[in-house]
Amino acid sequence: MKNSIEKGFSYVKKKSARMYSFFMMQSTRMQFAVSNNRGENYVDSAVKILIAVVLGGLLLAGLYALFGDVVIPTLETKIKEMFNYAG
Protein backbone atom coordinates (compact mmCIF):
# COMPACT_ATOMS: atom_id res chain seq x y z
CA MET A 1 0.00 0.00 0.00
CA LYS A 2 2.76 2.39 0.95
CA ASN A 3 4.58 1.63 -2.30
CA SER A 4 1.52 2.45 -4.44
CA ILE A 5 1.02 5.75 -2.58
CA GLU A 6 4.66 6.64 -3.20
CA LYS A 7 4.22 5.77 -6.88
CA GLY A 8 1.13 7.96 -6.96
CA PHE A 9 2.99 10.90 -5.40
CA SER A 10 5.91 10.35 -7.75
CA TYR A 11 3.53 10.30 -10.72
CA VAL A 12 1.81 13.49 -9.57
CA LYS A 13 5.18 15.22 -9.00
CA LYS A 14 6.39 14.25 -12.48
CA LYS A 15 3.17 15.40 -14.12
CA SER A 16 3.10 18.65 -12.17
CA ALA A 17 6.73 19.32 -13.13
CA ARG A 18 5.89 18.68 -16.79
CA MET A 19 2.83 20.92 -16.56
CA TYR A 20 4.87 23.66 -14.89
CA SER A 21 7.52 23.37 -17.58
CA PHE A 22 4.87 23.42 -20.33
CA PHE A 23 3.13 26.51 -18.94
CA MET A 24 6.42 28.33 -18.40
CA MET A 25 7.37 27.62 -22.01
CA GLN A 26 3.98 28.83 -23.22
CA SER A 27 4.31 31.94 -21.07
CA THR A 28 7.73 32.68 -22.54
CA ARG A 29 6.46 32.15 -26.07
CA MET A 30 3.50 34.44 -25.44
CA GLN A 31 5.73 37.17 -23.99
CA PHE A 32 7.99 36.91 -27.03
CA ALA A 33 5.02 37.14 -29.40
CA VAL A 34 3.57 40.15 -27.59
CA SER A 35 6.89 41.99 -27.40
CA ASN A 36 7.72 41.27 -31.05
CA ASN A 37 7.31 44.34 -33.26
CA ARG A 38 8.41 43.00 -36.64
CA GLY A 39 5.27 43.97 -38.55
CA GLU A 40 4.72 47.29 -36.82
CA ASN A 41 6.39 49.40 -39.51
CA TYR A 42 4.23 47.92 -42.25
CA VAL A 43 1.06 49.24 -40.65
CA ASP A 44 2.64 52.66 -40.09
CA SER A 45 3.80 52.82 -43.69
CA ALA A 46 0.38 51.79 -44.99
CA VAL A 47 -1.33 54.51 -42.94
CA LYS A 48 1.17 57.13 -44.16
CA ILE A 49 0.64 56.11 -47.78
CA LEU A 50 -3.13 56.18 -47.36
CA ILE A 51 -3.01 59.66 -45.83
CA ALA A 52 -0.74 60.89 -48.63
CA VAL A 53 -3.08 59.52 -51.31
CA VAL A 54 -6.15 61.09 -49.70
CA LEU A 55 -4.45 64.47 -49.25
CA GLY A 56 -3.13 64.35 -52.81
CA GLY A 57 -6.62 63.65 -54.12
CA LEU A 58 -8.06 66.54 -52.14
CA LEU A 59 -5.32 68.86 -53.40
CA LEU A 60 -5.92 67.86 -57.02
CA ALA A 61 -9.68 68.27 -56.62
CA GLY A 62 -9.15 71.74 -55.12
CA LEU A 63 -6.82 72.78 -57.93
CA TYR A 64 -9.24 71.48 -60.53
CA ALA A 65 -12.09 73.46 -58.95
CA LEU A 66 -9.92 76.58 -58.68
CA PHE A 67 -8.79 76.41 -62.30
CA GLY A 68 -12.28 75.61 -63.55
CA ASP A 69 -14.09 78.39 -61.68
CA VAL A 70 -11.55 81.20 -61.22
CA VAL A 71 -8.43 80.97 -63.33
CA ILE A 72 -9.75 79.75 -66.70
CA PRO A 73 -12.64 82.28 -67.01
CA THR A 74 -10.35 85.15 -65.98
CA LEU A 75 -7.67 84.01 -68.38
CA GLU A 76 -10.24 83.63 -71.14
CA THR A 77 -11.55 87.19 -70.70
CA LYS A 78 -8.04 88.64 -70.61
CA ILE A 79 -7.10 86.83 -73.82
CA LYS A 80 -10.28 88.07 -75.53
CA GLU A 81 -9.53 91.63 -74.38
CA MET A 82 -5.99 91.33 -75.65
CA PHE A 83 -7.02 90.21 -79.15
CA ASN A 84 -9.98 92.59 -79.39
CA TYR A 85 -7.76 95.62 -79.00
CA ALA A 86 -9.33 98.48 -80.94
CA GLY A 87 -6.88 101.06 -79.98
Provide a descriptive summary of the structure in words.
Pfam families: DUF6133 (PF19629). InterPro entries: DUF6133. The chain is mostly helical. It has two domains: 35 residues; 46 residues. Helix content is 90%, strand content 0%. The longest helix has 44 residues. The model has no long low-confidence stretch (mean pLDDT 87).
Task: Based on the model shown, name its key terms.
87 residues; mainly alpha; 2 domains; 2 helices; rod-shaped; DUF6133
Brief digest:
The protein contains two helices and no strands.
**Oligomeric description of these chains:** single chain
Low-pLDDT parts are: none
- Count of alpha/pi helices: 2
Global Rg:
38 Å
Rounded mean pLDDT is 87
Structural class: mainly alpha
What percent of residues adopt helix (DSSP H or I)? over 70%
Count of domains = 2
| Count of beta strands | 0
- C-alpha geometry: rod-shaped
- Spatial separation of the terminal alpha carbons: 129 Å
Order of helices and strands: HH
Strand content: under 5%
For the report, how would you describe the main beta sheet?
A: none
How do the strands and helices of this protein lay out in sequence?
Blueprint: H1 2-35, H2 40-83
